[in-house]
Design a protein that fits this description.
With 220 residues, the chain is of the alpha/beta class. 34% of the residues lie in helices and 19% in strands. The protein has a single domain, classed as TIM Barrel, CATH 3.20.20.70. It has helices at 18-27, 50-59, 77-83, 100-109, 156-168, 183-192, 201-204, 209-219, and strands at 5-8, 33-38, 64-69, 87-91, 113-118, 136-140, 174-178, 196-199. The site of D-xylitol-5-phosphate (DX5) has 22 residues, from β2, β8 and α7.
Length: 220
């Protein structure tokens, strides 16, 4: 199996010490920095916007993996690109964008790596026609909107089916999993075909970030 990447989710960091938190997880072995953008519309809560992404970028050396849980991402792709996003992940649901194919093509044109996000309630068929456009498929393993929720094991067949579909088509995107991931869940998610693990509370909630990241890496 391929080497797994670990992406700590900044949502669970101490926002009063954001720069220190980013540097600490990078030193602890983070591969990507996962940045959750919430607009209070696609999901109930609001997190932060491009100015905070810009601040995160100043403290980070690893790629910023920016997860847009917002309506009409097409309206702000350039703002996030300019703020320093390396990857732009857009939700596939029509409640976010009604022109998914166009948005993903646009992300590529802007020079970012495109990713498509699929929620627990969304069937695989909904994203089958865009798999060739993306570098990353992000499978939500909780319902989006909050950190600290429990992993939904019923998403494992979805991960496996997506990996199979990509293999059949000769595509090799990253399959990233987001929500409730810890050292106990990663064995099953990696076995199903995931190779990037997002973890918020599992890392920032741990007393030792290095140990938390190593535990996830060893389990995968
Ligand atoms: C949930 C966010 C996640 C969240 C994960 O809507 O997309 O990235 O921060 O947090 P944990 O790892 O605590 O489930
Ligand atoms: Zn996320």
């Amino acid at each position: 199996s391929r080497a797994i990447k670990i992406a700590p989710s900044v949502l669970a960091a101490d926002f009063t010490r954001l720069g220190d938190e980013i540097r600490a997880v990078e030193q602890a072995g983070a591969d990507w920095i996962h940045v959750d953008i919430m607009d209070g519309r696609f999901v109930p809560d609001i997190s932060f916007g491009p100015d905070v992404v810009k601040a995160i970028k100043r403290s980070a050396t690893k790629p910023l993996n920016v997860h847009l849980m917002i309506v009409e991402p097409e309206r702000s792709l350039e703002r996030y690109r300019d703020a320093g996003a390396d990857h732009l992940l857009v939700q596939s649901e029509p409640g976010s964008t009604i022109h998914l194919h166009r948005v993903l093509s646009r992300v590529r044109e802007l020079g970012c790596r495109p990713g498509v996000v699929i929620d627990p309630a969304t069937p695989i068929a909904w994203i089958e026609h865009v798999l060739h456009l993306v570098d990353i498929i992000l499978v939500m393993t909780v319902n989006p909107g909050f950190g600290g929720q429990a992993f939904l094991p019923e998403m494992l067949p979805k991960i496996a089916a997506l990996r199979r579909l990509c293999d059949e088509r000769g595509l090799g995107p990253h399959i990233e999993v987001d929500g409730g991931q810890d050292a106990k869940t990663v064995r099953s998610t990696v076995e199903a075909g995931a190779d990037v693990i997002v973890s918020g509370t599992g890392i920032f909630g741990a007393p030792d970030y290095g140990k938390a990241i190593a535990a996830i890496r060893d389990a995968g």
